[in-house]
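Lab notebook: predicted structure, single chain.

Context: the supervisor wants predicted structures on file for every construct in the current expression panel, including those that have not yet been purified. This is the next one on the list. No modifications to the sequence; it matches the entry in the shared construct table.
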Amino acid sequence: MTGPLRRAWDEEAEAWAVWARAPGHDAFWHHTLPELAALLPAAGSLTLDLGSGEGRLARELRAAGHRVLGLDSSPTMARLAATHDEPTDAVVADLARLPLRAGSADLAVACLSLQDVDDLGGAVRETARVLRAGGRFVLALVHPINSAGRFADPSPDAPFVITGSYLATFPYADRAERAGLAMTFHSMHRPLESYTRELEASGFVIEALREPCWLDAGGATRSEGWHRIPMLCLLSAVKRLPAPAAAPWARGSG
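Prediction complete. Output recorded below exactly as produced.
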């Protein structure tokens, strides 16, 4: 089923590829990637890049020794990943209906993609299904506090204002223009509890949560107060091992 976020990102795919591939253009290289890498386990048999886009994370994972399969709902994104100068394996897939066998992967990574899916619950359930017991799910999100409000002005000490409800769920779009490039980001604001409840319901145990502050490095500077409010939220979760069967003598004989 094609939802509004899925359609919107396929329409933005070409613009996203230009934006994402411009050297040092956004915070992925000096902010998002180092924070994400700090939570990743060693490479195993198969790593899934969920919402893989044009393939930049998959290329980094592969360089670190991972065998990576990228999955994205946008046919244009998957084509861009597969036809890059350093092509990566990528398939078109609804993240709520993954074309993989149960227990076939030991790591799934969702880098700034889960806030862009139409069916969050389905995506988390499917991730749990295709991970082996003990496998890890590492995700980076636009921090929900980020998508709930705005700074009153660009000064470092500006107040951060939430005019609606942080606890509501609502679609939003952010238009960004920088260095001659333009991009519209289409997402769904959900409170952090929405993500943690889906993880809990799908059998994950959260082992780490990070809210990194903005690091003013790498040439991508911001004047707002992101040193006071986190831009990102990162989580690492483990799929529970099956509960051991009770020994016959422990069941009671009535």
